[in-house]
Amino acid sequence: MKHLHLTAAAVDSKKLPSVNIVAYTGGLMAVGSWGVVAIELSGLDLSQPVVLLSDHDPSRENVLGQGVATVRGGELHIDGQLQADNQAVAEIVTAAKRGFAWKASVGIDPVKWLDIRPGQTFTANGRQLVAPARGAIHVLSSRLIECSLVSIAADNNSSVQIAAARKGYNMTFEQWLAQQNLDPATITAEQRAGLQARFTAEQQQSTLTAVADDEAQRLTEIQFLQARHSAENPDRVNLVERLCAAAVKSGAGVRQLELEMLRAMRPTGLMSVVVNHAPAVPPRQLLSACAMLLGGHEAAAVKAYGEQTMVAARRMGVHSLVDLARSALQAEGIEAPSDMPGMLRAAFSTLSLPSALGDAQNKVLETAYLETPSTWRSFCAVRAVKDFKQNYSLRPAMVGELEEVAGDGELKHGSLSEDVITFRVNTFGRMIGISRQDVINDDLSFLSVIPAELGRAGARRVSDSVFETLLGADGDYFSAELGNLLAGADSVLNFGSLVAAITAMRSTTDASGHNLDIAPRVLLVPPSLEAVARALVSSLTVKWGDGDLPMPEGNALQGSVQVVVEPRLANARFTGASSTAWYLFGSPADLPFIVAFLNGQDRPVVEQADQPFNTLGVQYRAYIDFGVSLGDFRAAVRADGV
Q1: ∠ CA 27-228-152 to the nearest 5 degrees?
Q2: What CA–CA distance (Å, rounded) separates 455 from 450?
Q3: CB contact set of 461 (below 8 Å; sequence gap of 6+)
Q4: Chain segment 271-329, per-residue pLDDT in tens
Q5: Nearest to 179 by CA among 190, 188, 171, 187
Q6: Mean per-residue pLDDT over the chain, rounded
Q7: φ, ψ for residue 27 (rounded to 5)?
């Protein structure tokens, strides 16, 4: 991705052209579909030799040579040789000698990266960088695959030096004389004999040097083949290493080794193609992420699919529902019809588009559902049921207590009585329709608004059912006879009434008089009692009321229970609502209430539904299956507050 400055050395030594490249200087670069990129050099794997290519083309006629990469002074340097004997090398060296400024482009295999927001400042390679208007990608971990010589690149701060190879050593005596600036016609016989002896000696030395150079070149080319085939076949690195070692030992030529390589690499079964880029994102997941971006739910999409998927989704360039429909066709390898109605009809008939839209709505709905306050979870036990039939939860109580075992080791039998709690689930839901007109008009409400509203509505529906059941509880659950109902003036929320409620719960026993050890956990109040409740359990000290009782030095109730505020307790829409009544509950494990969900699915789901034949579009149903039941009355206390 850099400029290359090439210079040719004198043509009087037998060497391969060498190349020295400053391949990357550590800043921002514009890299095609990836956008603006910064590569973290500390996370770049440089353990393998770097293949040098022309224009990122790995075909044999565009392989130039290989090099070794190092990081020096905060820059990526590649030092190597142009070992190939092909037209590409000849053209590059010739153009460089004529003054052409070649550039370089590195090819990496990204492993981990971050998506940087527009205008965000971040640190890369020890320097502060600012992402441009379209954002940037910070590649944290990657592997260097190749470096290409190109005519156009993104970074103008690199440099390359090339020392060109010199011509052959086997020149004639007349050519040698001409190189020495001597005219054969003007030299004497004696001079000619001396010069001939000197020429012969130089040629003999050149021959010996050439033989050594040829062997060095053979070994270098074998090393190059090993690096290239190891990079192309990472699962056969050991095989490549064995073949190359055998070639070095036997003196085999490069062509023979190449043939052995091709034979050994010939596939024996199905071919697996490995692309040196980021792991592929499943099309359905990618389209769903694009749909969530369109709907303005980027944070939820990142949480659902991860940052790498979102980087791929942003690069898709989906800016409208029409773009999304066209992308769905491309994902299934279907050519998009040229007319809009035909394209939309084809898109809605695929599996990709309806599934991706449904997935996106599910994620948005689920996020909104979980973000909606659900105070019932603080005191309700959650159960999973497998059908819509009447279900049962057992509250076992052992009759009798553990007795000392006699010397003969015999254990006496007790009996098990079971208090049965019954409950069942029902279905609550709504339909969502997406028409062809919605897509053409780019109406994003079914992605941006409706799923979130349905999620919140689902959460409210569960909460409504819980508190409808609580406020409608009769004497079989709350009563003075059961010991869990406070009434009259003594039930107004204050220090004394809260102590009375806590005492009543801690004193509960089973039918045989055994203590149940239920500990109070939750003080549930309407908004009108929130301040009083928090003062009672949060204040460091408590001031006593009328009378001559001594002032306590601390608040005995501090931190004793969790205060939970529920507005439905005082909402006149609910039968039995009161702004003065309050409740004390044990933990969900004590089963004061039960909320059951079909198959444990405790949040709404979105499914594709059949669309009428005369309607072009798609429909979805959002629903949740749940049921609510009163639980163990001994884990609950109600105070009327009046």
Answers
A1: 35
A2: 9
A3: 428, 624
A4: 222 333 445 678 888 899 988 888 888 888 888 888 888 888 887 778 888 888 888 88
A5: 171
A6: 79
A7: -100, -155
Residue 140 near residue 113, CB atoms below 8 Å: yes
Phi, psi of 441, rounded to the nearest 5 degrees: -80, 0
Residues 6+ apart with CB under 8 A from 153: 1, 2, 3, 103, 104, 105
94 contacts 82 by C-beta, under 8 angstroms: no
Sequential DSSP letters for 193-258: HHHHHHHHHHHHHHHHHHHHHHHHHHHHHHHHHHHHHHHH-GGGHHHHHHHHHHHHHHT--HHHHH
At 241-285, the pLDDT tens digits run 888 888 888 887 777 777 777 666 654 332 222 333 445 678 888
Residue with tokens 């011509």: 167
Identity of the residue numbered 362: N
Q: Which two tokens stand for residue 532?
A: 């009083």
Whole-model pTM: value is 0.52
Phi, psi of 148 (to 5 degrees): -110, 145
* Nearest-angstrom CA–CA distance, 444 and 441: 9
Question: What's the one-letter identity of residue 441?
Answer: N
Q: Amino acid letter at 332?
A: E
Please say whether the beta carbons of 88 and 54 come within 8 A. Answer: yes
Nearest to 617 by CA among 434, 443, 451, 447: 434
Kindly state the tokens that stand for 546.
Answer: 């009328």
- Reported residue count of the chain is 642
- State how far the Cα of 65 lies from the Cα of 21, in Å rounded to an integer: 13
Q: Which residue has the tokens 């000696």?
A: 201
CB neighbours of 36 closer than 8 A, spacing ≥ 6?
28, 29, 30, 131, 132, 134, 135, 136, 137
Coil, helix or strand at residue 502 = helix
The residues near 347 (Cβ < 8 Å, ≥ 6 apart) are 325, 326, 328, 329, 336, 353
Whole-angstrom Cα distance, residue 571 to residue 378?
Answer: 20
Mean pLDDT of 94-110: 80
Burial class (CB in 10 A: 0-12, 13-18, 19+), 487: middle
Give yes or no for a contact between 51 and 227, defined as CB atoms under 8 angstroms apart: yes
CA 420 to chain centre: 46
Question: What is the DSSP pairing of strand 136-150 with strand 35-39?
Answer: parallel
Residue 107 near residue 276, CB atoms below 8 Å: yes
Token readout for 615 is: 């309607």
